[in-house]
Design brief:
The complex is a heterodimer.
Chain A lengths: L8 H7 L5 H26 L11 E3 L10 E5 L4 E5 L3 E6 L10 E2 L3 E3 L6 E3 L4 E3 L8 E6 L5 E9 L5 E2 L1
Antiparallel strand pairs in A: 1-10, 2-3, 3-4, 4-9, 4-11, 5-6, 6-7, 7-8, 9-10
Chain B lengths: L8 H9 L10 E2 L6 H4 L2 H22 L7 H10 L4 H28 L8 H23 L4 H14 L2 H8 L7 H10 L6 H32 L16 H10 L12 E2 H26 L24 H7 L3 H22 L13 H28 L2 H4 L5 H6 L2 H20 L2 H25 L18
Antiparallel strand pairs in B: 1-2
Helix pairs in contact in B: 3-5, 3-12, 4-5, 5-6, 5-12, 6-7, 6-10, 6-14, 7-9, 13-14, 13-19, 14-19, 15-18, 15-19, 18-19
Classes of the chains: A alpha+beta, B mainly alpha.
């Protein structure tokens, strides 16, 4: 084995075609560091994607008798309007499909205070920047007589829970 | 010579170069860098405002609790119980608003003096990133009091991020690839604004964004030094671009006189006096503003009742006006186009000899006024049509959403600005003139939309000439 002055690593690589031991260690350590870094950052970045939620898709809104007939009643904390008539009960989202403000009941249907989108009583967009109609949710009656709203299941505006 | 200032030049240089806190300065500065009518000291004021923000922010943090039960009451405690708390909070708020305003003014100053030319491209881009960080910092601070104002501003903001759905809905892939929903969840940590959002925004506001801003402004200042000091007119035309050239320029006049025969100043004490004056003026202005005008604190957040009108802070009202046309166009497409344009300015315009001259001379000054006038006219015209006659949805109720998304006052005025810039480029053949035309148009449009959002929009985002005409509920 030739013993000579220490040469810079790069220069040595140019000269020798075969991978030397030093070359192997150099490449190995770089790749080990890079892959460890990538794996560590993936697992760290995953922490930023929320796993837990306080959002409830399904919840109870009390008995039918709480809701007066032939009007839209706002359900506090749930961002819903419930409409009851003599045959049954229906529920529509009170969240504007434009940018998420809580809409208000107006003469022609609903109106959003934030950017002025208007909907009719069926939740269909009349004017404004909203692009989608308000979703109607499936209702069920629980054994204790309370109404369950399932925001995961959408229904047509006519579909009611018959009483 | 002032007392305590050595006559020995070597010592005076040492004052700056051997002191960690002062060595950010060059030993000597060019007289042009201290001309008030050139820089207006805007960058310096921004630096001092940031310092004030950190100091007052630390004080506020000691009495603030980032939980949705306590946040609002702890801010109330700061205002009504903690001695001097209201004053500190006011200073913090006015410094924050000052940072937004002055960041834009600084951007405008640097643009019109061509401060992105001759190898200063990287620093311009860093400056644009700083603007974005400053805006996010203001936005995240807005939520922390957990009052109606912040709650609904962030609800709207997070849904703007989710408005990618408008695009994925049109493509029909929302079920598979819900980009908008993912960004929204990443931002507020849940489906709706709640404790997760407050925790995230608190972290962003007090750690992540300030540290990012510190690093970016450090690099920003360092690049000014590397690029040969604050930009100024060049003696001879530039042959090459890049750092190497800039360094040659520095070496050339390291001790030389400028074109008017003025000697370079020693940083100690000349620059120090100037900086001290700016610091005192900045702090004085803040103290007066904070004394006269209180930072607002509305009722506590009420998720069941959106305020009417629900307005974001003034610097986002231009965007809010645009999202009232289309959430995706106004909240995503236009801001991204704006940022892409700002970043691409140094690539569109490479006329390095125009460095350091306001408006690049008489032609540019005239063009700026022309662009301002024409942009004002066209933008106001589009908004007039929308307010007076309505838009496509009121004419053809069944029109598909994609047309409204692509054709609304915001996109139309943006298109017009671009056409105007292209026409100027054809006419003059100058990239700099074209950039001036586009930049002036965009900034004028931004100011007009912001002004409409601030003064002419009332309940249900309807048009009113004055807030005294708002209906009473």
């Amino acid at each position: 084995m030739q013993v000579g002055p220490i040469r810079p690593v790069l220069q040595m690589n140019k000269e020798s075609k075969n991978h030397s031991r030093r070359d192997f260690i150099r490449k190995f350590s770089i790749w080990a560091a890079v892959s460890a870094g990538v794996l560590a950052s993936i697992s760290l970045l995953r922490q930023f994607v929320p796993r837990l939620t306080q959002y409830q898709r399904r919840f109870k809104i009390g008995r039918v008798n709480n809701y007066p007939v032939n009007t839209f009643t706002y359900v506090p904390d749930r961002k819903l309007f419930v409409f009851r008539d003599h045959q049954g009960i229906r529920a529509v989202s009170a969240i504007c499909t434009h940018l998420g403000c809580v809409i208000k009941k107006s003469d022609e249907g609903f109106q959003c205070p934030c950017h002025g989108s208007c909907y009719n009583d069926r939740g269909e967009v009349l004017s404004g920047a909203a692009t989608k109609d308000l979703p109607w949710f499936e209702l069920r009656k629980d054994v204790d007589g309370q109404i369950i709203v399932d925001q995961g299941r959408l229904v047509s505006p006519e579909e009611k829970l018959y009483l | 010579m002032s007392p305590g200032i050595s006559e020995d030049n070597k010592r005076r240089v040492g004052r700056v170069s051997k002191n960690f806190f002062l060595h950010i300065h060059a030993n000597k500065v060019h007289p042009h860098s201290l001309e008030t009518s050139y820089t207006f000291g805007l960058g310096m004021i921004l630096g001092f405002l940031f310092l004030v923000m950190i100091l007052t922010g630390v004080v506020l943090m000691m009495n603030y609790t980032p939980s949705i039960e306590r946040a609002y009451n702890s801010v109330k405690d700061i205002v009504f119980v903690v001695p001097g708390g209201r004053y500190i909070r006011n200073i913090h708020r006015w410094a924050a608003h000052g940072m937004v305003l002055l960041s834009f003014l600084h951007l405008i100053r640097v643009f019109f003096t061509g401060g992105y030319l001759a190898g200063r491209r990287l620093n311009w881009i860093i400056g644009v990133s700083i603007l974005v960080v400053v805006l996010f910092m203001n936005f995240s601070g807005y939520l922390l009091p957990w009052d109606q104002l912040g709650y609904w501003a962030v609800t709207i903001g997070s849904n703007i991020a989710a408005s990618f759905r408008e695009l994925t809905d049109i493509l029909g892939i929302t079920q598979v690839l819900d980009i908008g929903g993912f960004i929204k969840k990443l931002l507020i940590g849940d489906e709706t604004v709640g404790q997760a959002a407050l925790s995230r925004f608190f972290m962003l506001h007090v750690i992540f964004l300030p540290v990012t801003l510190m690093v970016l402004s450090g690099v920003h200042l360092w690049r000014i030094r590397k690029d040969g000091g604050i930009s100024r007119p060049q003696k001879q035309p530039v042959q090459a671009e890049g750092v190497a050239q800039a360094e040659v320029a520095v070496n050339q006049d390291i001790n030389g006189a400028d074109d008017r025969g003025r000697e370079k100043f020693y940083s100690w004490p000349v620059v120090m006096w100037a900086e001290l004056a700016i610091l005192l003026l900045t702090v004085a202005a803040l103290l007066v503003m904070a004394f006269l005008f209180d930072a607002p604190l509305r009722e506590g957040a009420n998720p069941d009742l959106a305020e009417n009108p629900a307005k974001s802070p003034w610097y986002f009202l231009g965007i809010q006006e645009l999202v009232s046309y289309s959430a995706f166009a106004g909240g995503v497409i236009i801001p991204i186009l704006f940022l892409v344009f700002l970043i691409s300015i140094p690539y569109l315009d490479r006329e390095d000899q125009k460095l350091g001259v306001w408006f690049s001379g008489k032609t540019g000054r005239k063009l700026t006024w022309q662009s301002l006038g024409i942009s004002f006219f066209v933008t106001v015209l589009f908004v007039f049509i929308l307010v007076r006659f309505g838009w496509f949805r009121s004419w053809f109720p069944d029109i598909p959403q994609i047309i409204i998304m692509l054709v609304n006052p915001a996109t139309l005025s943006a298109l017009f600005y671009m056409l105007w810039a292209v026409w100027i480029k054809r006419k003059t053949g100058s990239g700099r003139m074209s950039a001036i035309a586009l930049f002036t148009c965009v900034m004028t449009g931004f100011v007009i939309y912001t002004a409409i959002g601030i003064w002419f929009r009332g309940p249900n985002w309807e048009f009113y000439w004055s807030s005294s005409q708002w209906p009473v509920f």
